[in-house]
Amino acid sequence: MATFHHSNPTDRDIRRVLQKLIIILSLGIICVSLFYFFTGCCESDLTENSVSDRPASDDRNGTFYKDVVTVQDEDGYPGTGEGSTLTPGLETDNTGKDWKATRRLPQALIIGVKKGGTRALLEFLRLHPDIRALGSEPHFFDRHYARGLHWYRSMMPKALDGQVVMEKTPRYFVTVETPGRVHSMSRDVKLIVVVRDPVTRAISDYTQIISKTPHIPAFETLAFKNRTNGEIDSLWSPLWIGLYAQHLERWLAWFPRAQIHLVSGEGLISDPAGELGKVQDFLGLQRIVTDKHFYFNKTKGFPCLKKPEGSSKPHCLGKTKGRTHAPIDPEVIWRLREFYRPHNQRFYQMAGQDFGWQ
Ligand SMILES: Nc1ncnc2c1ncn2[C@@H]1O[C@H](COP(=O)(O)OS(=O)(=O)O)[C@@H](OP(=O)(O)O)[C@H]1O
Question: Can you name the residues that pair with 85 across neighbouring β-strands?
Answer without folding.
Answer: 70
